[in-house]
User: What shape does this take?
Amino acid sequence: MTERPTRILLADDHALVRRGVRLILDNEPDLTVVAEAADGAEAVAAVRGGGVDLAVLDIAMPRKTGLQAARELARLRPAPRVLFLTMYDNEQYFFEALKVGASGYVLKSVADRDLVQACRAAVRDEPFVYPGALNTLVRHYLDRGGDGGALPERAITDREEEVLKLVAEGHTSKEIAELLVISAKTVERHRSNMLQKLGLKDRLELTRYAIRVGLIEP
Assistant: This one.
């Protein structure tokens, strides 16, 4: 009996990118794109609907980043495997991807070369990283003296990060409260906690911080 193709969710806020990536994946007999999403929140909702084996996520997306979405997907049972497809050749994003349990990290610039291979590796539960990332891993290991210590913790919590992203996107406290299904008072408390933790003064500095850590694009 022929094995069922791997069912893939493709999440990217650019329709043209999704179209091109879909052409690459749907051209393979063992891979099929069954759902698309334009942001991280849509991606989580699509996977919750069932029938997805592998989520291919962009990192920088509206409402929820790919990293935020991946943290939520990891809590689902069964959880899909996650692969990041990104334009960012960036150490911080790469290590965050490892921390959220991603199976692979592929650069969009070489998607036509690496993506299919990465998807198949994820299905086999094998890691896939682009060659430059291997150099990053080795350098990081050597810099830490080979002690194998844990990666440093983020300064803010998952929920604070969700609030921060929406603040930086220009949403009001009321809008954020509605999107996250919490009270406006709770939103304000999260914002106040972040200002204190990060040593920042106002919304503008929060937005600059969000750009710096990749929650939104400048």
Remarks:
- The two ends are 50 Å apart (CA to CA).
- The beta strands are 6-11, 31-37, 54-57, 81-86, 104-107, 128-129.
